[in-house]
Amino acid sequence: MSLSEVEAATESEQVEQPAGNLRKEAWKRLKRDPIALVGFGLIAFFVLVAIFAPLIAPYAPDAQPGRGMITPTNIPGPSAEHWFGLDASGRDEFSRVVYGARQSLLVGVVATLFGMAGGLLLGVLAGAFGGKVDTVVMRIVDIMLSIPGLLMAIAIAALLGAGLWSVMIAIAIINVPVFARLLRGQMLAQRGSDYVLAAVSLGVRRRPIVLGHILPNSISPVIVQATLTLATAIIEAAGLSFLGLGGADPRVPEWGRMLADTQRYLASAPHLAFFPGIAIVIAALGFTMLGERLREAIDPKYRR
User: Where, if anywhere, are coiled coils annotated (predicted)?
Assistant: First the structure.
């Protein structure tokens, strides 16, 4: 057998390899990747903190155990009794950071899921029908992408009014075109595959082809993008809350809102900004590390 025949046979075997085997191979690669494991560990840590916040936090988020210790010129920092110090109202900063994980992760996850759902809908319409439908959908996507994401999020959140749901909807909308363009590109690439052409030649209808073959084989990059989007969603949610567009209830802690409340005390109590800030950075880092390694495991083009 000639070298060209061997290469052709190898390529044929790779094309015919079931998607399930590719996923198993990607999973094995992830389990051996220390960076992916660290990212997963960071995510699992924050998820567990959010779930078991009442058991971890020594005080309720709105309790004021150190109210008598606060003076106009003194806000106590970290100590044996209050690990992260106290805030300007005498509340335990450690307890508020722990409970804040709930709101911050909730906003990031919900916004990403909503954005992915909207992007999948537009992407499927554009990728499955093509033609005028594709043109109209992609022009809408192009218009949305032409506007800076954070600026659009601020405008949407301000229009809807301050609140966590406004932040979620705003972040979801700015992520819709990202998922739509990604899925549409993947589906267009799959439409020219041999198995799709064979199904069309056999008279299989468009709907079974799209939902049963093209979409399942195009969804993996979208899942990877969702993992990366979670990191940016957490940062964007913190940014909107910092600008006063998040939840208005001071009894419900959220990392971005905690940063906004500490602006007046940065010189005298820098610990109030450090701990929620580092929580945002580490949580976003965990999702980014896992997302990048997941992309490398699934797509050979990104492997080093």
Answer: none
